[in-house]
Amino acid sequence: MQEDATLKKDIKLMAIGVGNNAKQLAAFKKVHRGRFPMITDEEGEAWTALGSAATPSMVITTPAGKVLASHVGPIKDFDAFLKEIRDLHKKQ
Fold first, then answer.
1. What residues make up the domain containing 13?
2. What is the pTM of this model?
3. Which of 28, 57, 60, 88 gives 20 to 30 Å between its CA and that of 70?
4. Closest Cα to residue 1, out of 91, 90, 79, 92?
5. CA gap 45, 18 in Å, rounded
6. What is the spatial distance between Cα 47 and Cα 49, in angstroms, rounded to a whole number?
7. How far apart are CA 59 and CA 47, in angstroms?
8. Pick from 6, 28, 32, 1: which is nearest to 17 by CA?
9. How far apart are CA 55 and CA 73, in angstroms?
């Protein structure tokens, strides 16, 4: 998404560390070279509010919090997933 000028401007990626503390997230970010914000959710409150029950999961929302799409599990076809994001973006 960072290579698409329109998506890069309008879509932001962040991670929620469900059940993780700040130290654990910092280690994860370092090992996996995460280039996006990661927030802790030690009690799972944010994750529950988003309606997710499994990891990895992705939730695509509007800035106001309206859920546009979600995906559970690894992304097997990234090109198809990116097309879905572009299509959602065009509808906004």
1. 5-91
2. 0.66
3. 28
4. 79
5. 9
6. 5
7. 10
8. 28
9. 7
Pairing of strands 38-41, 15-18: parallel
Contact at 8 Å (CB) between 36 and 59?
Answer: no
**What's CA 52's distance to the chain center, in Å?**
12
Token code pair at residue 88: 């959602």
Measured distance CA(60)–CA(26) in Å, rounded: 24
Local confidence pLDDT in tens for the 92 residues of the chain: 778 888 878 887 788 888 999 999 999 999 989 888 888 999 989 888 877 767 788 888 877 878 888 888 888 998 998 898 889 888 88
Q: What's the rounded Cα separation, in Å, for the pair 79 and 47? A: 26
Place of tokens 């994750």: 47
We report the CATH number of the domain holding residue 17 as: 3.40.30.10
Report the number of distinct structural domains present in the chain.
1
